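Let us work through a complete example step by step.
Step 1: write down the sequence.
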Amino acid sequence: MVFGGLMMIFEGIAAIAEDDVFVTTRNYAYAFDLTSWGWIHLIVGVVITLAGAALFQGATWARVVGVAVAGLAMFANFLWLPYAPVWAIVLIAINGFVIWALCAAPSPSER
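Step 2: predict the structure and record it as tokens.
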């Protein structure tokens, strides 16, 4: 989770800092300003990173928050596909793995 969150933070910073980095497609249904997308990715990335850090402490709430925010991150990256397709697909896969890992891992009381 920490890695996926950091990658979303970097993606957000790149979109906020320089709009010329990304090429947009025409007539995309979910076309927003890249600066708006940058802030969305930055905020979601920070929340994912913090929840991932809380998992190292064994917080049960972090698993629930992690699943929810990783799902939001998958959705945000799906909408990000026209701007950075390969990067978005990689982050969708990472977040899918995060959701699977959080749901399949034994609870701290079972260890």
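Step 3: interpret the result. The two ends are 21 Å apart (CA to CA).
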